[in-house]
Amino acid sequence: MNQELNYYLTIVSQNVEYQRIIYGVLKRLHIYPYHPYRADYEQEAHLIMSLALQDFHEHNHKCTDANKVGLFLYQRLYWRLLDRLRAEQIQRNHIQFSIDQINDDHHDEEMPNMFSKIFHDQSVDRQFCHCEINHFSSSYYRSSPTSNGGT
User: Fold this and answer.
1) The pTM of the whole model exceeds 0.85
2) For the chain, which residues make up each domain, given as ranges?
3) First CA to last CA distance, the chain
């Protein structure tokens, strides 16, 4: 981490007004204290706020109006966190849709392709995870009606 970003992170964590902006944005996005990922969002908000403050000072070094700075930081933080929430929602909906699609689909020739699309994770590098996924897939195929000579 560079020294300048570290400086802005310190400013954001110690400034009461910046903390109010962060908590206001989290409240507006319905990320309340009992939200399961509240701490993650707070940490991300501090980082976004620090980067935004750094950008603001680099491009508008002549501006000293606290209202303009606060408005800029609020909008930047709100839009960045909203983008993250939307991306997570899209990912959850896509995964849920894919699993529901498998449950409703009766075409056995498409099943291996669907399973490989859902369970293939590039970030998984441990053999145990691959073994569990392969075991689940093979047990599912053995229990399907067409693999046992059904109709």
Assistant:
1) no
2) 1-104, 106-151
3) 62
